[in-house]
Amino acid sequence: MSNLICSLHDQALELSKQYLACEKELLEILVKIEAKRVYLEQGYATLTEYSQKALGLSRDVSWNLVTIVHKSKAVPELKQAVQRGVLPLSKARQIAPHLTKENSQKFIKLAQTMPREKLQEALARECPKVPSVEERARVINATQAELSLCLPKEVMEKIRRAQDRVSESQKKWVGLAETLEQVVEFYLQHKDPKERAKRHEVRKSKAAVKTIQARRTVREFDGAAISHELDFRPINKPIAKIPSKNRVPIPAGIRHEVIIKNAHQCTYQDPKTKLRCEKGRFLHFHHKLPVAKGGTNALENLTLLCSAHHRLEHYQGSA
């Protein structure tokens, strides 16, 4: 073996040791950052966002580290095994979803002695109820994406039944992709806040037209008494509720208008990149001027924030 090859090998070994040492030190720092909520001070809503945007870590590396940080709160043995150098970060991430205080020693020992493929099989046998396949969604081309996930057998049977119904309605065989598309479309039509808000707007417009027509009809009557007896309730009048001592509930009509205005998406804008948060789940109605400072439920004073950015907004407001 030439001196050059030996030198390159020695350099690779040395850098590998440094890399593994840095992984352990980074994990320790992130544990402290999570405990002190340092990412909030830096203007990031979550530790994952901080790891990717502030530290420049890749999605996978960030996900591995943050998963271990969070799991270490319940199972400190996981972090200790990584810090001692007996458990690689990738394997720690692999066993983290399955770990409990009761099985931690067993699974950490398995992870130390087994290759990743064999470890995956062992986890599937030991924890059949916990998905052993990580959920993944990736874009293949401009029009298609690939979805990989684990489903309970009962759910798969329901999807097959839905596939039969969709095939019958279209009078042709329909694949799983089209079946899921139809099921998702049906669910969103009935449950998505954005769709409900659109239907509310349509109903409000129709109701306004009917009210105008009714009032014109009333004016044609000769007796004022008849007009007095008819009941004309304001459109969008909220259902009467017992008012809270601290704040007035946001009327349903205003809530729908806020959803339509913001396309049912978090409105937080990153101050550095100027990019808007893309989250459309776990959204909260946020008063730009807090209620405690005289803020009202007016449309212009309301916006939508995801739970993480809502927490960040209030943290920065109280700082």
Q: How many beta-strand elements?
A: 4
Largest sheet: 2 strands, antiparallel
Structurally, the number of domains stands at 3
Distance between the termini: 62 Å
User: Counting H and I runs of at least 4 residues, what is the number of helices?
Assistant: 14
Order of strands in the sheet with the most strands?
1-2
Would you tell me the overall average pLDDT?
Answer: 83
| SS strand fraction | 5-15%
Helix-strand pattern: HHHHHHHHEEHHHHHEEH
Percent range of helical residues: 55-70%
Low-confidence stretches: 224-244
Short note summarizing the structure:
The chain has 319 residues and is mainly α. Helices cover 59% and strands 6% of the residues. 17% of the residues are buried.
What key attributes describe this structure?
319 residues, 3 domains, two-stranded antiparallel ribbon, 14 helices, 4 strands, 6% strand
